[in-house]
Write a structure and sequence with these properties.
CATH topology of one domain: Rossmann fold
Helix content: 25-40%
CATH class of one domain: Alpha Beta
Shape: globular
Low-confidence stretches: none
Strand order of the largest sheet: 6-7-8-3-9-10
CATH architecture of one domain: 3-Layer(aba) Sandwich
Protein name: Putative ABC transport system ATP-binding protein
CATH superfamily of one domain: P-loop containing nucleotide triphosphate hydrolases
Distance between the termini: 21 Å
Largest sheet: 6 strands, mixed
Radius of gyration: 17 Å
Number of strands: 10
InterPro entries: AAA+_ATPase, ABC_transporter-like_ATP-bd, ABC_transporter-like_CS, MacB-like_ATP-bd, P-loop_NTPase
Structural class: alpha/beta
Organism: Dyadobacter psychrophilus
GO molecular function, one term: ATP hydrolysis activity
Pfam families: ABC_tran
């Protein structure tokens, strides 16, 4: 589902050049649940952003579900992200002025769905994460774990084949972190391919495979 070949990412300013990723080769198969680990600043989030087409590599090739994306236009990349990918962030990225269900509907606004279909899909996603009784609440009325479940519902509302999660349990206590990981495992069992960045060894051990990074390089 995700293939990276000889991927390199360099950040340049007028004064300095920083090699964030060096010669990354990864093949994530359909239905896998893969975790990415490494010390802070080693390139984990940069790698996830490249996998999610939110950033472009300086060198190398990317394939998403068999499609080589380097020649895609910005519009085509945005369409591919919206159709194929779901994103979960450590800091939730919910809009405080919108209700829970309106937050979950956001990815569907870029599709040709009717308002009725959007609402039904959002309700279905919230039911999957156990928040059907919080649809009319606002983010400020929720706990950290509930906010993350809303973020997961938003990620899956469009039924993406790939879910990319950046430290989804990082801001949560261990009990709530285990609940969130259990939801991700259920989504994986339902067919979703998942790549998760984590600092937690216990969480990583519950996934199918571990990719380690150190100073932007894969560690084997």
């Amino acid at each position: 589902m995700i293939k990276l070949e000889n991927v390199e990412k360099v950040y340049r300013t007028s004064a300095i050049e920083t090699l964030a990723l060096n010669n990354i080769n990864i093949n994530v198969r359909k239905g896998e649940f893969v975790s990415i680990m490494g010390p802070s600043g080693c390139g984990k989030s940069t790698l996830l952003n490249i996998m999610g087409l939110l950033d472009t590599p300086s060198k190398g090739h990317i394939e998403i579900d068999g499609s080589k994306v380097e020649k895609y236009t910005d519009k085509s990349l945005a369409h591919l992200r919206n159709q194929k990918l779901g994103f979960i962030f450590q800091s939730f990225h919910l809009i405080n002025d919108l209700s829970v269900i309106d937050n979950v509907e956001i990815p569907l606004l870029y599709r040709t769905s009717s308002s009725k279909d959007r609402r039904e899909l959002a309700q279905e996603a919230l039911e999957k994460v156990g928040l059907s009784n919080r649809m009319k609440h606002f983010p400020k009325q929720l706990s950290g774990g509930q906010k993350q479940r809303v973020a997961i519902a938003r990620a899956i509302v469009g039924k993406p084949e790939i879910i990319l999660a950046d430290e989804p349990t990082g801001n949560l206590d261990s009990a709530m972190g285990n609940e969130i990981l259990s939801i991700l495992q259920q989504l994986n069992e339902g067919g979703a391919t998942i790549v998760m960045v984590t600092h937690d060894d216990a969480m990583a051990k519950r996934t199918h495979r571990l990719i380690r990074l150190f100073d932007g390089t894969q560690v084997f």
